[in-house]
Amino acid sequence: MALNFEEWVCPLPLRDHTTIVMGHGGGGQMSGELVEHLFMPAFANPVLGGLTDSAVFQLGGARLAFSTDSFVVQPLFFPGGSIGDLAVNGTVNDLAMSGAQAAYLSCGFILEEGVELSVVGRIATDLGAAAQRAGVTIATGDTKVVDAGHGDGVYINTAGVGLVPAGVDIRPQRAAPGDVVIVSGQIGVHGIAIMSVRDGISFGTEVVSDCAPLNGLVAAMLDVCTDLHVLRDPTRGGVATSLNEIAKSAGVGVELIESTLPVPETVANACSFLGLDPLYVANEGKLLAIVAPDDAEEVLAAMQAHPLGADAAIIGSCVEAHPGMVVTKTAFGATRVVDTPIGEQLPRIC
Amino acid sequence: MALNFEEWVCPLPLRDHTTIVMGHGGGGQMSGELVEHLFMPAFANPVLGGLTDSAVFQLGGARLAFSTDSFVVQPLFFPGGSIGDLAVNGTVNDLAMSGAQAAYLSCGFILEEGVELSVVGRIATDLGAAAQRAGVTIATGDTKVVDAGHGDGVYINTAGVGLVPAGVDIRPQRAAPGDVVIVSGQIGVHGIAIMSVRDGISFGTEVVSDCAPLNGLVAAMLDVCTDLHVLRDPTRGGVATSLNEIAKSAGVGVELIESTLPVPETVANACSFLGLDPLYVANEGKLLAIVAPDDAEEVLAAMQAHPLGADAAIIGSCVEAHPGMVVTKTAFGATRVVDTPIGEQLPRIC
């Protein structure tokens, strides 16, 4: 059959690429351009237009959040977890960033011919245990098998649905000048944990992934303040990319105080070894909260009282100056622009 | 890091396999064993226990159906559609088999480094157009990129949520002796359309995939009868596998009348060329309905009045004899057992 690709005119090229490159999956500018120029025109609708971690809509009288993520991490097992843990926590956390409690997950496995059943079994067990810890039910699933050489052992997609409590309206557009930026704990941990066991660039480190479900922490925050403005889990592209997206969505500037950024020494050391900036390294058990200044102290206290927020800290604020841009202030008073990365710094960390 | 796989004891081997083989993805007995012995113990919960095409549950006062499917078809474009069409219709149809109208879809792309942007764009366009035709909104998405040699151009996962109308209770367990088995049209079309363009075994044929959204047909059926007992779209493993699953779930026998099976001549010819039985070949725009005998005539008429059910036909009935088993009666009165296939007859057709 003759396939006529000429029917579809590519609205790109994206930075002169005519094929997919790793950077399109990095969560940075290239990912954004792929979504904006290729997927959005194809799918265009007002729900998707939000471009948040999860969609929020009314269905049958219920106010639901709905989200999906595919997981292609390598290696499949890493210090502190596995692709099974990521598959649950990633989607639970995306829902939590709308203030929703994850209720049900779907789970689609793409298995590569030849992968050991014991590996699949161990991952499924991790996934089931992670779901139990997060209090979410795996409701429906699917398994496909692809020929050897067309996968990488195990890929997993999860989608999740959850209820958004009445009165809660958490979305990036709500960041306002004067708002306070809080991070729930030490940053850069997940990405460095993955890199520490990557074939070819292994290095000795004690860093263990922070992969964890954040729905409990968010519930504790909502208990003291239903008017949280923005929540975001800084995964691919790290804190820098998440804050840039928020700044652009809301049309505000973000100013970080460098000395307040909670970077553990092990991460700082690994980053200088690898030539990375911890602000761009992925987290899988951390969140950024942007709240009104009057609420900041109470929200911070609630976070610090929760096991997953013990190291929570205020790291900056939203400002009227330089809308859409993130900067950090150094101890010497200098200001540095924290841009969105173009492509991929650490491939396939989730 | 030392990974201790010994913690997880494989409850298998499945037919002496210790690794995943293509048959585990075929939708037959090996797929069933993987789900039963590996995934179910890991995820065990009452919602998943149903093992139907979609899970049905209450959330926030709404009665929802939730389903997922990954799509790994090769080639990506085939006569009558593409992986983009399949990704929408597959999940819309799984929801429809619970009587639910799909409302929102999630969409996760796993792209292989090096795939042409124009291919991705064409697929996204197909996917968006298919969603519009089916009346479903793509609400949330995700894109990952994997290294060249670890994918096959494009894999897609979709999950969907929809509302189940009040009073509708459609599930395999409701098949009862005396019930009538209806098929919505000609069988075996999708699998043969894919095989006709498969590298290495191409053959000339006029067969075009039947890929279509069945939610409109199901709505037309529910308009005349809310008490449909079972619906199933016979995809992987075909009509034979779907009916075997239903027979086992309900503890009934199924008796098909061979002469009534609507097999188009092109499919029959291709099947004899390939050594296949049309009962085992996948469909992507057909459904099986099992209804009480008193409802059969009205449901059949409603189906035949719909464009996607014009060739609907009664093909057999549920019987008390041989529970869990499907048989066909030939024109000469002989009876043949129609078993569940063990592994994979046509790999990666969806």
UniProtKB/TrEMBL annotation, chains A, B:
<dbReference type="InterPro" id="IPR011854">
    <property type="entry name" value="HypE"/>
</dbReference>
<dbReference type="InterPro" id="IPR016188">
    <property type="entry name" value="PurM-like_N"/>
</dbReference>
<dbReference type="InterPro" id="IPR036921">
    <property type="entry name" value="PurM-like_N_sf"/>
</dbReference>
<protein>
    <submittedName>
        <fullName>Hydrogenase maturation carbamoyl dehydratase HypE</fullName>
    </submittedName>
</protein>
<dbReference type="InterPro" id="IPR010918">
    <property type="entry name" value="PurM-like_C_dom"/>
</dbReference>
<feature type="domain" description="PurM-like C-terminal">
    <location>
        <begin position="177"/>
        <end position="321"/>
    </location>
</feature>
<comment type="similarity">
    <text>Belongs to the HypE family.</text>
</comment>
<dbReference type="GO" id="GO:0051604">
    <property type="term" value="P:protein maturation"/>
</dbReference>
<dbReference type="InterPro" id="IPR036676">
    <property type="entry name" value="PurM-like_C_sf"/>
</dbReference>
<dbReference type="Pfam" id="PF02769">
    <property type="entry name" value="AIRS_C"/>
</dbReference>
<dbReference type="Pfam" id="PF00586">
    <property type="entry name" value="AIRS"/>
</dbReference>
<feature type="domain" description="PurM-like N-terminal">
    <location>
        <begin position="53"/>
        <end position="164"/>
    </location>
</feature>
